[in-house]
Write a sequence for this structure.
């Protein structure tokens, strides 16, 4: 049971981070949204719908959601929520090494503080 | 400035959305009473709840704004910044919903706020390539 739980938690966290990274990659490929008129926004939504990265991001988000539901069927929220805080570190690592973003030491420190704070809020 | 504005509105929408969903579920629980209602009745109550619809609309707004921001901002900047929503939510839960907030909860929110401040400050950090260029 412990192996299954750890496996599901790992799947949930990785899927959540992958979803963020894939959606971010799709939006970078689509290009900066500069016009917020309804017609332009509809065009952007159309390009998002046709983006393979965006579709993969939505798929990863679905995996995250259903893994989360599966976990809740046999472990408590107090166990699942603190683990979700790891998403911040994992998604930042994905941004650094997959999206090639510059992540300074100060930004890493901030992400680690956010991760610790979110875990504390989740367990308290 | 555009990033700050969009993320601020996104965070406000997410926090307000969560409060609306919380209020909606409380009203639902109060309407059901001690006897569990049949699933169809429960679904009907949920579908006709203005709190739940408002909450869902606000969370959809948050998702749209966050996705748009990712078209021009780094994920490593935007993702930690939206976690400031937890600070807003803890404050609103204590103030609007009358929930008790433990010291550990407050400590967590302080750490999140400090982390977000560091991440926001890092937006001005130079890349290694920029550091090699003359000012």
């Amino acid at each position: 049971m412990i192996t299954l739980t750890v496996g599901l938690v790992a799947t949930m966290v990785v899927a959540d981070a992958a979803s963020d990274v894939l959606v971010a990659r799709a939006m970078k490929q689509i290009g900066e949204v500069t016009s917020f008129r309804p017609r332009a926004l509809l065009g952007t939504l159309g390009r998002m719908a046709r983006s393979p990265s965006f579709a993969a991001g939505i798929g990863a988000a679905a995996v995250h959601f259903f893994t989360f539901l599966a976990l809740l069927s046999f472990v408590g929220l107090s166990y699942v929520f603190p683990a979700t805080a790891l998403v911040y570190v994992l998604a930042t690592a994905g941004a650094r090494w997959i999206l090639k973003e510059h992540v300074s030491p100060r930004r890493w420190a901030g992400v680690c503080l956010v991760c610790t704070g979110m875990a504390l809020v989740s367990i308290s | 400035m555009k990033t700050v504005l969009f993320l601020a509105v996104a965070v406000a929408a997410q926090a307000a959305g969560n409060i609306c969903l919380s209020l909606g579920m409380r009203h639902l629980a109060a309407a059901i009473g001690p006897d569990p209602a049949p699933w169809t009745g429960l679904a009907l109550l949920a579908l006709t709840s203005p709190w739940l619809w408002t909450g869902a609309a606000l969370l959809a707004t948050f998702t749209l704004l966050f996705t748009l921001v990712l078209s021009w901002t780094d994920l490593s900047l935007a993702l930690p910044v939206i976690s400031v929503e937890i600070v807003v939510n803890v404050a609103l839960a204590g103030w609007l919903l009358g929930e008790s907030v433990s010291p550990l909860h407050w400590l967590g929110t302080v750490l999140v706020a400090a982390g977000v401040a560091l991440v926001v400050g890092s937006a001005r950090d130079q890349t290694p390539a920029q550091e090699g260029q003359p000012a």
Chain A has one domain: 2-123. Chain A touches chain B through 41 residues (CB under 8 Å).
